[in-house]
């Protein structure tokens, strides 16, 4: 079914939960009449059309969840006039244009997810115009460009931050180390260059760190050994060199991808005498799965994923 325009007559409506209900059609402009509404949940339907600008008239709205639809057009600047907004999730739609700078007015916004849309813009400009109240920020799988600014540190409450699969370039700013509450930092599939700053080692709450498929280089900082809660680490398809010895004693590491780099060895990760770290690793890949690539093959007796073995020319599972 559809959301009827008559919904605007339900003047006392406060919460609407209509997720996964096979809804079609557009969101009627009449929702702007619902002055007492606090939460709209339209997730995972097939709603299309634009988000009505009248949503900005609902000044008590705290949650607007419309992920997994077919919404198009731009994100209304009027969201910036809803000062009590806490969650805005528009993930996986067909939205275009830019992220409104007016969102900086939403001083209580804790969660923003606009990933998997066609939104464009400069990552630095976007981050500089978001409220410092954010706890989760998902900007993945979009054509965002530019460099991560040192001012990213102002988002000091971030728990999860994803810019995966964009066109973000340049180096990782050392100020990233000030995001001390981070559990998840996903920046794979970008154009990042330079070395991993030692300040990454200050993010001691990290559980997942993803830098795969970039152009990062140099040796890994020893400070990575401080990430004792780290469970998932992806450094694959970069230009790292040296030995990843900083990873050998991480006690909670479960998934580790090091393939397609220029490491000299696996840095003691496979040492059977170690009392920490390797016992928990369930997935480990250190070499290319491309049988034509023999340039970075290193001995890895404890690898669990496809590793090119030069003496028999095959890709083995273990």
Quick recap:
This protein is mainly β and 318 residues long. The protein is built from 1 helix and 21 strands.
Description:
This protein is mainly beta and 318 residues long. The protein is built from 1 helix and 21 strands. It has one helix at 123-128; strands spanning 15-17, 39-41, 63-65, 72-73, 87-89, 94-95, 111-113, 136-138, 160-162, 169-170, 184-186, 191-194, 208-210, 215-218, 232-234, 239-242, 255-257, 262-263, 283-285, 307-309, 314-316. Strands 1-2-3-5-7-8-9-11-13-15-17-19 form a 12-stranded parallel β-sheet, with no helix packed on it. Strands 10-12-14-16-18 form a 5-stranded parallel β-sheet, with no helix packed on it. α1 (123-128) links the parallel β7 (111-113) and β8. It is elongated. The N and C termini lie far apart (51 Å). Mean pLDDT is 92; it is low at 272-278 and 312-318.
Which key terms come to mind for this protein?
five-stranded parallel sheet, 19% strand, 21 strands, 2% helix, mainly beta, 1 helix, 318 residues, disordered C terminus, twelve-stranded parallel sheet, elongated
